[in-house]
Amino acid sequence: MKTNQKRLAKYVRLARALGARRAKIVPVQKIAVGEWVRVKCQYGCSGWGKRYSCPPYSPSPEVTRKMLAEYKVGLLIQRDNIRFESEPKLRVGFKKMVARLERAIFLDGYYKAFGMASGPCRFCRTCDLTKPCRFPDEARPAMEACGIDVYQTCRKNGFRLEVVRTYKDPCAYVGLILIE
User: Fold this and answer.
1) CA 168, CA 5: separation in Å to the nearest integer?
2) Domain count, the chain
3) Alpha helix (H) ranges present in the chain?
4) pLDDT in tens, 71-117
5) Neighbours of 180 (CB within 10 A)
6) Do the strands 73-82 and 22-27 form a parallel or antiparallel pair, or are they unpaired?
7) Which label site among 115, 120, 124, 157 has the fewest CB atoms less than 10 Å from its CB?
8) What's phi and psi for 22, nearest 5 deg?
9) CA quadruple 174, 114, 71, 77: dihedral, nearest 10
10) Which domain, by its residues, includes 158?
């Protein structure tokens, strides 16, 4: 299926309708991947090894690079001004948004569509790693869990993303749906 910017523009509109503040079709060459990103997950996030959407279960940076080579474009989305107190509920909602966009894109014939969201999955209170995922239609790995440098990817594509310094500061969620 040939990439058609006009046809893909409808996914930008859909993302905005679903609550994304920013949405843009981006070339995969502007998606930054780094080994250090996964190390930050290992030594900076309590989700390491506790959820299927997190390392070591998520795709490695090496696998992510190989996967990106099989695509031309993706839909980069951002939802911001999220407050810490509402964060867990909104994170689940954001993951559902990514899954919904992925499904809409898939059903339009882009059969390779694959989404990635932000942060550890929160569909279950705890992830039972002895059983299959209970939410395979909605649970997706975090971009950073796959080695994607979210800050650099945002900058390369004209999105603004700042480091959150305190729990009082609003944060942003970024997602990516690979299209073709």
Assistant:
1) 39
2) 1
3) 5-17, 35-42, 61-68, 87-107, 150-156
4) 999 999 999 876 665 565 666 788 899 999 999 999 999 999 999 99
5) 18
6) antiparallel
7) 124
8) -125, 145
9) -20
10) 5-178
Strand boundaries in 47-148, DSSP class E? 73-82, 114-116
Per-residue pLDDT, 162 = 86
Q: What is the DSSP letter of 60?
A: P
Upstream peptide bond of 170 is cis (omega within 30 degrees of 0): no
Residue 39's nearest CA partner among 149, 165, 161 is: 149
How many angstroms separate the CA atoms of 122 and 125, rounded? Answer: 6
The pTM of the full predicted model, rounded to 2 decimals, is 0.91
Cβ-count burial 99-127 (b if 16+ within 10 Å, e if not): bbbbebbbeeebeebbbbbbbbbbbeeeb
